Amino acid sequence: MSTVLTNFETWKHFLKDRVAQGKNMGLTEETITNLAFEIGSFLDEKVDPKNEEERVLKQLWDVGDQEDRKTISKLMVKLVEKA
């Protein structure tokens, strides 16, 4: 996964594919958002930002509470769905 995280556009494409797979499997929007939240939590704890966009997301994640982080997750899902 590390090469996926090097470039933000590559990350968005990867996430878009995973969101589409989830929808094809019948996952609800809420379930997909919850999974995005879990991924965000993992990345925050285990992965150093590889580019400027990831640094901004990490800073927002770090200053937010759980509801803010869920909002960021939901917005990331929406972002990749529109791409």
UniProtKB/TrEMBL annotation:
Pfam families the UniProt entry points to: DUF3243 (PF11588)
InterPro entries, sorted: DUF3243, Uncharacterised_YmfJ, YmfJ/YflH_sf
Top-rank taxon: Bacteria
Protein name (Swiss-Prot/TrEMBL): DUF3243 domain-containing protein
Organism: Paenibacillus nanensis
